[in-house]
Amino acid sequence: MKKLGRLCLVSAFLCLVVPLLAFAGSTKDITVSAAISLKNAFEEIGRLYESRYGTKCVFNFGASGDLMKQIAGGAPVDVFASAAQKDMDELGRQGLIVTATRADFAANSVVLIVPAGAKTSLKSFEGLSAVEIKKIAIGNPKTVPAGRYAEEVFSSYQILPFIKTKFIYTENVRQVLDYVARGEVDAGVVYATDAATRSKEIKILSTAPEASHKPVVYPIAVVKETKSEADAKAFISLVLSQDGKKILQKHGFKFNK
């Protein structure tokens, strides 16, 4: 009888513990690959998403072109958010996104920055051709949208051929910001939202006219191979919601009219 009693107690214990262990091991998460310029805003949106839906956001931030190649190579990603249409278009052509979920959700500006304590006569993009400007940091145009926008701005001012030898190419736009903040280059080109994150270390000299480059518009979409489509769609819905827009706006992003 004692053995039977102990067996009953063990059985009751297992009935309680096993479901709890199963629940603990089934914590959901989604992987969001996003342009690194979205880092601060998306991390805040991710926290809201997790508190609201109980699903954790695992972020993979980087240059949009690199993230696109990762997805094309089979990386397990649920949501992709790019800093340019080009990278999302490429995934669309390969049939790697759920087209119906694609949406533009934010916009940005391109700015010229220098170290906060820089003593320079530089005042605008045109001045980058001056002899005193030796090093200009921009994202690698092959993978970094901000680098492509920068070259478009330089072409608009007809200075690109004269300043190419001054370029210090970086792996992403935040690396440009680091170089400028540390005074390792004379100037750099980033997004206005990036500049705002290091406002004590850098200063904005000029904002590129909208007509000088393609619109900086951020698209987002569910990746076709996701195994968590409902959760991925919920994340995009939050980004597009008023709560999501408030967070994006707080971090300096704009919205197309």
How would you describe this protein?
The protein has 257 residues and is an alpha/beta fold. The chain has 2 domains: 133 residues, D-Maltodextrin-Binding Protein, domain 2 (3-Layer(aba) Sandwich), CATH 3.40.190; 98 residues, Periplasmic binding protein-like II (D-Maltodextrin-Binding Protein, domain 2, 3-Layer(aba) Sandwich). Helices cover 42% and strands 21% of the residues. The chain has 10 helices and 10 strands. The strands form 2 sheets. It has a 5-stranded mixed sheet with strand order 2-1-3-10-4. It has a 5-stranded mixed sheet with strand order 7-6-8-5-9, with helices on both faces. The longest helix has 23 residues.
What's the total count of β strands?
10
Question: What sequence of helices (H) and strands (E) makes up the elements?
Answer: HEHEHEHEEEHHEHEHEEHH
Estimate the helix proportion, in percent: 40-55%
- CATH-derived topology of the largest domain: D-Maltodextrin-Binding Protein, domain 2
CATH architecture of the largest domain: 3-Layer(aba) Sandwich
Strand order of the largest sheet: 2-1-3-10-4
Unreliable spans: 1-5, 7-26
Sheet bearing the most strands, described?
Answer: 5 strands, mixed
Q: What is the CATH class of the largest domain?
A: Alpha Beta
Oligomer, anyone? single chain
Q: Which superfamily, in CATH terms, is the homologous superfamily of the largest domain?
A: Periplasmic binding protein-like II
Integer count of domains: 2
SS strand fraction: 15-25%
Number of helices: 10
Distance between the termini: 78 Å
The average pLDDT score comes to 91
Structural class based on helices, strands and sheet pairing: alpha/beta
